[in-house]
Amino acid sequence: MNENNTKSIWKVIGASSMGTLIEWYDFFIFGSLSIVISTKFFPAENPTAAFLSTLATFAAGFVVRPFGALFFGRLGDIIGRKYTFMVTLMLMGGATFLIGCIPSYESIGFWAPLLVLILRLLQGLALGGEYGGAATYVAEHAPLGQRGYWTSWIQTTATFGLFISLVVILLTKGFLSESQFDSWGWRVPFLLSLVMVYVSYLIRKKMKESPEFSKAKAEGKTSTNPLKESFGNRYNLKFVLLALFGAAMGQGVVWYTGQFYSMSFMKTVMHLQSDQADTILGIALLLGTPFFVVFGWLSDKIGRKWIMLGGMLLAVLTYRPIYESMYQLSNTEQKVKVNETTEVPLGPQTTEIISIIKTQYEDQTEVTRASMIHQSGKLKGQPMTKTTVHLAGKNYMLLVFLIFIQVIYITMVYGPIAAFLVELFPVKIRYTSMSLPYHVGNGIFGGLLPAVSTYLTTNAEASNTPQFYLAGLWYPIIIAIVCFIIGSIYINNKSTPATHE
């Protein structure tokens, strides 16, 4: 590739990645603030039910993504890649901004969760059209034999979007007091979206249509009915199903286990301090993100198949030992206590704190147990205890490493998959054909994971099941095993599969 072509494709990647990153930021800010959101938009009398309702609303955005893939994929194959993901960008940004404007449940009652759900569904529709367009656009600019490398840069945007959402939340918390953040500061990351989307819009407006699509359009070879040609043609449908059940399904559960279930596990099962959990995940994401490009590049050399399936197999074999190790880092049953102090805070608060007991352990773990009385709703006058764990020293570093391992699995399954999907389908129906299996795999199988796994864990804990904290892992393990078996048998390991016409 000559210098001019290299500069050209970097401009393409920059413009595509900027918009896709912001869309992922918009989408993930909801998940990153799920614990706070559960207290704002849902009834307060049952915190566990409120959190599960928030996760269900979060999952709803994923469930609707395939419909966005069908709607916007069709537009992308008829009118072009560029204009389609300009629309998805504006839709995503508008929905995210409006979530930050919705009054709380205490102010408008049932309308609060309903409005959040509607806007979350709009986010899902937008993201359903965004990823396929960006991946297709970059792939159609990339030279043959290098698609894995160049499309892997798009793959980094999802992780960077989550990383930036965590950074914005931590910075907002850093500038505001705890009461200010709880009162109105949590809205700031949503409202900032409008500025970010506008900047991305200005950048994307200058982009040109992809050369492969422009050539097909000039020659009259674009599809008039991409949905019928994608899913009504039995031969093409076979590739759609292979993409879903042999790759995207397993990739989706590995991705969401490492980046969302791990965060939920640290906060709700390990009871880690929220800021510390966000920081640990952020460090692991930052360290692991370059490996998207490494595995994308490697897939050009040795093939996509075994890199993706290898990530799934490693996840299946090691998830339980990894999460067992994570849980034991915060489990104080076997730890040696060295100090304990009791404090009685003064001053009126929305939630009245009766006492705070701080316990320090020999390995530098610190546990804070706050006894509180909620002064709102049905909880008025009923005491409850909130436990917060803070890790330090080698335990902190070990937890970063355990999350980092999961991020490596993510980069293995996700780095090569854009090139893999693009190469399965012809230009005229590529946007539609690749978008649907990707968003069913990630939106349905992956997006449901936080809610399903949290439910399984909560149910196991209520039933006093031994190692209840590992119950949520059965969902990603089973899905990844099934995908590994199908992919092993039916996927061709050519580095650039012959695209069927």
Overview of the structural elements:
The longest helix has 36 residues, at 234-269. The chain has helices at residues 3-32, 34-40, 47-63, 65-78, 81-99, 105-108, 111-139, 147-175, 178-183, 188-191, 193-204, 211-218, 226-232, 234-269, 274-288, 290-302, 305-330, 393-414, 417-422, 430-446, 449-462, 474-490; strands spanning 337-343, 351-361, 366-374, 383-390. It has 22 helices and four strands. Mean pLDDT is 83; it is low at 495-501. The radius of gyration is 23 Å and the shape is globular. The protein is an alpha+beta fold. A four-stranded antiparallel beta sheet has the order 1-2-3-4, with no helix packed on it. It folds into two domains: 3-333 and 392-490, MFS general substrate transporter like domains (Growth Hormone, Chain: A, Up-down Bundle); 337-390. 70% of the residues lie in helices and 7% in strands. It is found in: Cell membrane. InterPro entries: MFS_dom, MFS_sugar_transport-like, MFS_trans_sf, Sugar_transporter_CS.
